[in-house]
Amino acid sequence: MSEDFHLAPLPADADLLEALGPMEERLPESQYCVFRSGRERYCLPVLDVEEVLDWPLLTKLPLGPAYLAGIFNLRGAIVPLIDIAITEGRRPGLLPKHVVVASLRGEGSHDDLQIGIAADEVIGTYSVNAEDLLEQAPENVPHCIGMLRHDDRLALIIDLRRMLEVFPGPSI
């Protein structure tokens, strides 16, 4: 063991709270998963994201809408994969690399719906303050409810319920 390595006791709770500063000065934080689909950056609250996967083996659905890339099996659950960048005219041969699997909570415990969203790049998870959230979203993006400011860039905040109205997936 190195002589430079020293263990120090943790401060008492009162000392720890004092080191953090007054409670009213800290703004509440929330976390968002930021990813790129096509040319646009999008984000989802971390609580809505179940996991991020590499591109899975897809089953195409005959006569399915263009934005529905297909369905895939995720540990026994059939998940529709929606490519929201298709409206941007993504080149036909250019496949995304990742899938952001989100869960839309239902009223009952078995009513949760999993949705896969095609992502070209997963940028990361960011903790943000309320001041980093903008309630305005572009009018031509009806599945978004606002924007998130991170790293001097903006990401559109996806509302999963609105997204399923704009891009209805198959009923399985």
Topology (elements, then pairings):
Layout: H1 13-20, E1 29-37, E2 40-45, E3 49-54, E4 68-74, E5 77-82, E6 98-104, E7 113-119, E8 121-129, E9 133-134, E10 144-150, E11 153-158, H2 160-166
Report on the structure:
9% of the residues lie in helices and 42% in strands. The protein contains two helices and eleven strands, in the order αβββββββββββα. The chain has helices spanning 13-20, 160-166, and strands spanning 29-37, 40-45, 49-54, 68-74, 77-82, 98-104, 113-119, 121-129, 133-134, 144-150, 153-158. Strands 8-1-2-11-10-9 form a six-stranded mixed sheet. Strands 3-6-7-5-4 form a five-stranded mixed sheet, with no helix packed on it.
Number of helices: 2
Number of domains: 1
- Total beta-strand segments: 11
Please state the second-level CATH architecture: Beta Barrel
What attributes does this structure have?
172 residues; mainly beta; OB fold (Dihydrolipoamide Acetyltransferase, E2P); 6-stranded mixed sheet; 5-stranded mixed sheet; 2 helices; 11 strands; 42% strand; globular
In short:
The chain is mainly β and 172 residues long. It has 2 helices and 11 strands, in the order αβββββββββββα.
